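Agenda item 2: magnesium ion complex prediction
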Amino acid sequence: MEVIDNILRRIQSEGYFKSVKRYAYLPYDLNLAMQVVEAIGKSRNPNFVIDDENRFTYENLVRWVQGDNAMMCLDPETKQPVPGRLDKGIYIAGNTGTGKSWALEIMSVYTTIDKIQIGFGKDYNGKDILGCLHWANVRTDTMCEEFSREGTYDKYKQWKCLGIQDLGAEPVESLYMGNRVDVLRMILEYRGDRTDRITLVTSNLPINHQKLIDRYGDRVASRLTEMCNYFEIKGADRRKVRNLAPNATKSDGASNAPNK
Ligand SMILES: Nc1ncnc2c1ncn2[C@@H]1O[C@H](COP(=O)(O)OP(=O)(O)O)[C@@H](O)[C@H]1O
Ligand SMILES: [Mg+2]
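Presented output:
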């Protein structure tokens, strides 16, 4: 019936059904792609390396960007590799300084090499709404400060792709004209209910950590697991490792210089 078809199309265009559509950008050479990623990193900081601590994450971020079904992620419970989902976003957990933020930033630069098309739901006529797989990375405290200044976080609900840096590091409440709002909780609840959004997150908290559940509630915690492929980057704080390098001496100004 036409009436029902129209209703269903409208529902679909509102983004309530799983509707991110990925296209394969194959063939591509994973080794070459990793060299490109490393070169992007080194152009930012000559000490940038892809090593045993971050290789799994970077390789699978490349596969994810390329729309390669061989993409893997980690099971948040067992921490074992499991098949990833190309229509989901990314969550990278790890201690401070392990390189999580850089991973999102470098991969965001990588997406500018080819314009990777992606379908973000369907329009009213049932056609895919095409966009590019590319995201801005915004720190959570910046989002909260913006809310306290301007009273809105709407753009972070609406951007099709959004990189959220440092989830859990922001204040629990932000104040605007007497309104106290847990900004990230609201943004994540909204984005988690939409199926035509891609959300990328870095955090010191593992995705299934009790602190994350206590902080944002069950609803957001379970939405995050539904929304994201999970990764962990291990290892030491890379800011400190540089300062502790064996050939670094106290007088070695360069090795002690802040690298951010
Ligand atoms: N793969 C890497 N190899 C070497 N140094 C890195 C790498 N990734 C990040 N860094 C360095 O470590 C610092 C911390 O990285 P960052 O991504 O900000 O950490 P996190 O977000 O995990 O706290 C950066 O300023 C950068 O100089
Ligand atoms: Mg960070």
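Discussion summary: The chain has one domain: 2-235.
Owner for follow-up: CH.
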